[in-house]
Description:
CATH architecture of the domain at 6-96: 2-Layer Sandwich
Largest sheet: 8 strands, antiparallel, barrel
Structural class: alpha+beta
Number of helices: 9
Number of strands: 11
Order of helices and strands: EHHEEHEHHEEEHEEHHEEH
Distance between the termini: 37 Å
Amino acid sequence: MTTGWHCLHLYYKVDQAALAALSDAARGEGRDFVIKTLQSDASHAPVRMQVSIVSGHRADLCVMMMDPDPLKIDAVAQEIRNSAIGSALVPTYSFVSITEISEYVPSIEQYSERLQREGTSPGDPAFDAKVNAYRQRLPAMNNQRLYPEIPPFPVIAFYPMNKARHPLANWYTEPFSSRSNLMAEHATSGIKFAGRVSQLITASTGFDDWEWGVTLWARSPEHIKEIVYTMRFDKASAKYAEFGPFYVSYAASPEDAMAHLRI
């Protein structure tokens, strides 16, 4: 990739029968190997890697990874599979995507036009101040979209989504200007959660069965519920969004994750 990173969300479930069939020695060897494999600061690690403990019956462990090289990401999955406990860690769900700058992120010119439509005129000190502030923060915002840092928040939620193609609500037949305005409203709702929730949207058209993946990191579990509920009232979501399964997990070190899973 010339810009951005590949991204993989990989979910595992512990196969208790396979785990019980292992000798104590194999179990210990495999656990230590997987812990070493999942160290985010190791030389073999993708540029971003996070381990988390998953709530609910569909999965027990999540590994999220990002890197310019998709095979470096896949190598981690293969190391886990090939470990002494690989037979006991069964992949149950994965999501393949890439980071991107959305086409709905306004340029400086588009942002200026939006301010004018909202009633702020060029030459007004408020207009100049807003445009200059946006010009200064846009490069950092786009860099975070393409090369995201993982925030130090303990709660993670992931879900895939599409834009609807229903005959009465087809996102892809709406003009770009309408779609852009709807996404601007949607973004305004999300900004209200700054400092409590960090969001990453990755693109999966042509990579997976859904069009985007949404990863949310939150300071507290209730913030996940609040932001998802609040943003569902935006027209871009209420009329045009389709959601896949939600996975909620809690950030953990590889050592703590293995201990929690009783491996």
